[in-house]
Structures are given as structure tokens and as C-alpha cells.
Amino acid sequence: MTLEQIITGALIAVTIVTFAIVLRLAARRERRDREVLEESVRDAAHRPASLHPLIDSDVCIGSMTCISACPEGNVLGMIEGSSALIKGANCIGHGRCAAECPVDAITLVMGDGERGVDLPHLDTSFESSRKGVFVIGELAGMGLIKNAVRQGVLVMEHVSTSLQPGWHECDVDVAIVGAGPAGLTAAMSAKRSGLRALVLEQGDAIGGTILTYHRQKLITSEPVKIPGYGTLQRGQMSKEDVLALWQDIAEKSELDVRLGHHVEGIEGTDGHFIVRTPRGVITARKVILATGIRGTPMRLGVPGENSPNVAYRLADAWQYTGQRVLVVGGGDSAIECAYALADAGAQVAISYRQPRFARARQANIKMIEDRIAAGSVQPLMSTRVIAITPSSVVLESTDKAAAPRAPMKLHNDQVIICAGGTPPSSFLRNVGIQLEQFKGEAPRALSQLAGSMSASRILPAVLWIVGISLLVGLGILGWDYYVLPRDKRFVAPLHETLRPAGTWGRTIGIAATAVMMLNFLLAVRKRVGLLRGVGNIRDWLNFHVFVGVMAPLFTAFHAAFQYENTIAVGTASACAVVVATGLVGRYIYQLVPGGPSGRPANVSELMDRVDALRRVLATTPLSVWLRRLLDPPQVRELPAGIIQLVHLPIAAFTMTANLVESRLHIRKYCRNNADPQVREAADDLYMLARLREQLAFYPALKRFMATWRAFHVTLSVFLVLLIIVHVAVSMMVGYGWNL
Q: Contact at 8 Å (CB) between 294 and 141?
């Protein structure tokens, strides 16, 4: 046995071990993600409160870029080879997951099939059902400072196209209700367009929802460009710093902001609105509502909640130093309030109706758990307040599984209720704005934000033109040499130049190695924090596919289309197999069925789809072979143990062959049958055939995905090792750089 064969055998052994480790790690991750999902469902933390991702697992390729892109953590996980929403309560609508998905498998939606969300009816320009009145910010269903700023710019771009600057009979061109980031940005954009804008704020300061945060609360913000001011780069700022920033923006931009103006109603029509406030009326040609949704705190409906010792937000924790304070709620606001009070020296208890804090961010949960462990916060889990007095509160248990207990009386000085807010639905209806309920659907206005960054249409064409041109050039340059048999190459004029160790041969080899290494840029882009968000992920994927295909082709020119040693053959073969696994895996992913709620479809969902199509096609005249499609489908069990690895590719091939056969039978029958009913049923027939195959091979396909991705990654590592050995052996035997 030669040294090369020993080295190759050792590398194959290392690859097999690596493959087993990768599979084990993937299985461990999936177990953990399943546990998180089960815990979320148990704690009612699986439903997101606002904008969230809907994942089409039929399209998802399991790249995990969406998981690493989410700044909240533990929101998305991997289940059955595709991404899934495992803790919806932690999702606050960043939207990075959708932007980072390389195959557009994620759509940002509101609500779900179990619980709808009522939002103003808006078109793609944020205009409501009442012509001339626009809605942006949290009131439109999209929070976060970056979204607010973007919406403020977009809505004014639309408004400015229908308004000509100059004097008009109205007091202002645009009346903006709400002095938060969305309203202030809209006012700045209006001023830059030469329009007269007036901002009406019911509070005594600008800031919008940020004003309701407690003192020194840290606010995380992504880099965002504020028109007329610059780019905000700071990732984390305190409440006071954010308010000071927007105050500085308003002053430098010389915005007309009127505080203490509560809007009671909007009358008139588009072009001449009358905005009524207790301090008088303002006439405006257009109206923009940017009031947020937290203006009306959620009430508990218990005796005593209107007492002077009850508050619905924490302005300054230090004013409660030394006092006994009960915080009611279990979300982020309640937890932040509790640990801020504890840090300020208050005696804090927190009441939450659930047995654990599940709807809050992981960082906040750790903060409150640290203070509970230190004894500075008393947890009153599975309880709710039933009465409040000036010196005490009465709580009862919400644990239905526990033995009945008498209500508990807790001596207390102050109560802070952080149970969320109710959307101003009645105000919207009063001003003539129609509401619509979203159940897992994307708001139309969201398309303006989602379309802000798209993949390049030119890059793929440029890459392939350059790559093919280089290959054609190399082919033309060495054609006379490459077509010669091996025994005649030694005397050919181009032998010293084009042979693997020749000048051009080595150069091409180095280029091929560099191209192979570039193939790992996608993995680096997904995992390295500094590169996340740089460029469009679809462009990175296109580049990944391009260099993956080009690498073995350049390698063939380096080897002069003849491989003379085991390591060289192994390297070229591994390179080709890596490319093949990537392309085949992408095809297989398209066969896996997906569910409508952002998770892999289950057997019952597939069966429902099959039954629906069977009912539709029951009266259609079909051939004997096609009539078999209407028979009840069966799920094929997956073999246990190591035999799965053999069964999985066979199952994928069988499924593909069956689909091709079904397609041919459907086309033949439709071609020979003039009945219009048969022709119209062709698509339904093929869909039924596809669903039957998906259902039959459901366990195999789902398992195939996780295994195939691990196989592709392992072979990539094996390829790198082979390249290193190949280069090392070449240097050991004396190949130099002789020009």
C-alpha cells in the first residue's frame, strides 16, 4: 500500500467520523429546539404579538441564516430540516430573518390562524380607507425605530407627489398626529420637500412610545439613516439618550411641534381636513396618524385599580426607593420594571398568571432570575390580582392543577400594572378608518419596507459570463495539447507549460484552490457577526453556487484532464461530489411538503389536502391508471438504524420517478381526451399525485434533508483536507515555482 493510499484512507476515516459528529450535533440541536417549542406552547409563548416570520418549509433549504440573523435569539430553530418559529413571543418584528433568507422562504405576517390582529386597512402607500389619511408606525402594525423612520420617509414621498408646495387655504399641508420617530421623520421629510407640516402631540414631550419606558432603560437600535440629520450608528442607547437625540433632531430641523394637543376628531375630506383638539382646530390638506398603540393601558377590571397608588408605567424607579411595590405582568415591560425597582432599592414582588416567564426576551429573563436568586425580587407565579387597597393587594392562584387555596393578602404600598395596551380601535373607527383582521397575512404596506433591499439581477449573469469566458479561453489555449493521448504529450511543445506542474498548470491549480476556498465565504458570512447583513444573502448564495461549479472545472484544466495519483483523483472526485450534493440537495428540498403556519406540514395536513382534491376530482372521467390516484394514500414507514442512509436516496429517487410517471400519464390522457373537464383537471391531478408521493415518503424526505445537509458539509471539510494534503505532497516531491 502506497503512502498516498494510506493518507487517503486516513482522510476517509476522518470524514466518516466527522459526518457522524455533524449528524449527532444536528440531532441534539433539533431536540433542544423541539423542547423550546413544546415549552412555548405550554406557556402560551408560541404566538407572536406583532409582525413575525411565516416560513414556507416547502421552499426553505435549511441554511440557518435566518436563525443567526435574529437579534433576539431563541425565536427560530431547526425542526425536520427547516426553520420554524419556536418562541413567537420573543419576536418583535425586526424582519432580519426575511432579509437574510437566500430563497425567499420567509414572509413577514401579522396574526396567525388561531388569533387575528385588527389593523387599519392600508394600501401600499400607507393610505387608509379614508382617502387622504395615512397611518404609519406602531399603529400600522410595524414597530421598531428603523421601521418608523423608513415609513416616515416613504409616506411623505407619496404625499409630496400629490401636493404642490406653496400657499393654500389650509393652515398646513400635512398634519401629523404623534411626535414619535415615525411622526418626526415624516415632518422632516415634508420640510425637505418644501411642504408645511405640523406635529400634534398629546403628551408634554416628544418621543412617542419611548416616553413610556422607565428611566435609564436601554434601547437597542439598528443603524438607520435619518433624513436631514445623518446615520444613527449607535447600537444601544438609554431612554434619555434616545429622547435627547430626537429632541435635538426636532430643534435642528426647526420642526413645528405642538405639545399638549390631543386630537379628538378629524372632519372634512381629502384636500381640506379639519383636525379638532381642545385647543382649537387646524386645517390640513393631508393627515398622517403616527400615534402608536400604547396610549390606553390594559385594565385588570378589579376593585381598587383606580386608586392613587396604582400606576400603569414606571417613569422613575428611584421615586419608589424603600417602598413595597407589586409589579403585575410577565412580559418585557413588567420584568424591566421589576428589576429597575429592585436596583433602586424598592421591596419588589412580581405577579404573573403563568408558572414561568416565557413571553419575555432571554436577556430580561436572566436579569429577573438573577434578582430573584439574590432575594431582591419576590416571584408570585401563577397568581392574579383580584383586589387592590391603599395598603395591600389580594391575589388568587391561577394554577388549576394545584389544590384550591384561599386568596393571599400581600401588604403593599404601590402597584404598577404592566399588562400592555389596547389599540385605539374606537378612535380609528370614529375618524372613518376601516379595520381589517390579519390571520397569518402580510399587510400591504409592508411591501414597501420588504422591497428596500433586493438581490442583484446582473451579478449572476456577469459571474457566469466571466466564468465561461475563462474556461473557453483555457480550452482554446490548450486544445492542441489536451486532445493528445498521454504518451504523446511529453514531446508536445506545450507540455512544459500546461502539464500540472508546468507554469500554467500550477497557476491554474492555485486559481482552482482559491476558487474552492471562496466557496466557504457563504458559511463565514452567515456566522461572523461583522459580515451579517453585508450585501444581499441571495447574491452570496449565487456566488456560492457559481464558485462551487467552477472549482471542479478549473481543477480539470489544472490536471490537464488526466489524474496521475490517488490524492489528485480523490481531490477532483470530492470536489465534484460536493457540487453534486449541493445541487441534488437543492432539488430534494423542493419535494419536501410544507405547512401553512411557518412549520413543516404534518401528516394530517397533507391528508386534508389530498382529501380535498379527491373530492374535487371524484366526478372527473379518468383512465384506469389515473383512477388509482383517488385511492386512499398510505404513509411508508422509515426503516430503523443505519439502513436509513441507504433507504433515503432510494426513496428520493423512487419519489421522483413516480412523479415523472404520473406526469406522463396525465399528459397522455389529456392529449387523447377532448373532454374540457379532463383538461381543466390536469393541474389538480398532478397536485394530487405530488401530494400522494409527499405523504407516502414524508418520513424519509424529512430525514433526508437533515442527513443530506450534514453530508454536504462533511464532504466540504474532506475536500479542504485533501487540498491541503495534495499541495503538501506536491511540495514534498519537489515541485517548485520555476518560471
A: no
* Closest among 633, 652, 642 to 699, alpha carbons compared: 652
Query: ∠ CA 574-580-583 to the nearest 5 degrees?
Result: 145
On the 0-12 / 13-18 / 19+ scale of CB atoms within 10 A, 292 is buried
Indicate if the pLDDT at residue 480 is higher than 80. Answer: yes
How far is Cα 5 from Cα 665, in angstroms, rounded to an integer? 50
Compute the distance between CA of residue 325 and CA of residue 157 in angstroms, rounded to an integer: 48
Task: Give Cα 156 to chain centroid, integer Å.
Answer: 27
Calculate the CA dihedral of residues 473, 478, 482, 483 and round it to 10 degrees: 90
Sorted by where each starts, the structural domains of the chain and their CATH numbers stand as: 3-105 (3.30.70.20), 118-296+424-438 (3.50.50.60), 299-419 (3.50.50.60), 459-586+712-732 (no CATH), 603-633+641-707 (no CATH)
Amino acid making up residue 89:
A
Cell numbers linked to 169? 387655504
C-alpha distances (whole Å) from 694 to each of 423, 587, 609, 708, 717 are 43, 14, 11, 17, 32
446-482 residues labelled b (16+ CB within 10 A) or e (exposed): bebbeeeeebeeebbeebeeebeebeeebeeebeebb
Residues in the chain: 739
Instruction: Work out the mean pLDDT of the chain and round it to a whole number.
Output: 78
* Helix or strand run (H / E) with residue 537: helix 537-558
What is the DSSP-derived secondary structure letter of residue 621?
-
Q: What is the largest CA-CA distance in the chain?
A: 104
How far is 510 from 176, CA to CA, in rounded Å? 62
Give the torsion through C-alpha atoms of 35, 39, 44, 49, to 10 deg: -50
Strands 414-417 and 82-85 turn out to be unpaired
Q: What is the distance between the alpha carbons of residues 425 and 435, in angstroms, rounded to a whole number? A: 8
The tens digit of pLDDT for each residue in 669-680 reads: 877 777 777 677
What are 312-331's pLDDT values in tens digits? Answer: 878 778 889 999 999 998 88
Paired with 276 in beta bridges are 265, 281
Query: How many Å apart are CA 155 and CA 160, to the nearest integer?
Result: 9
Placement of cell 430534494 in the chain: 588
Per the CB < 8 A criterion, the answer to whether 368 and 357 are in contact is yes
Is residue 600 within 8 A of residue 59, CB to CB? The reply is: no
Cell triple for 515 = 476558487
Cross-strand pairs, 297 = 421
Name which of 649, 630, 644 is nearest 691 in CA terms: 630
SS (H, E, C) 232-300: ECCCEEEHHHHHHHHHHHHHHCCCCEEECCCCCEEEEECCEEEEEECCEEEEEEEEEECCCCCCEECCC
Three-class DSSP category at 56: coil
Q: Please state, in angstroms and as integers, the Cα–Cα distance from residue 403 to each residue in 38, 399, 400, 406, 547, following that order.
A: 25, 8, 8, 10, 65
Provide the grid cell at 3: 503512502
User: Is the torsion defined by CA of 5, 6, 11, 12 positive or negative?
Assistant: positive
Query: Taking the model in full, what pTM does it have?
Result: 0.64
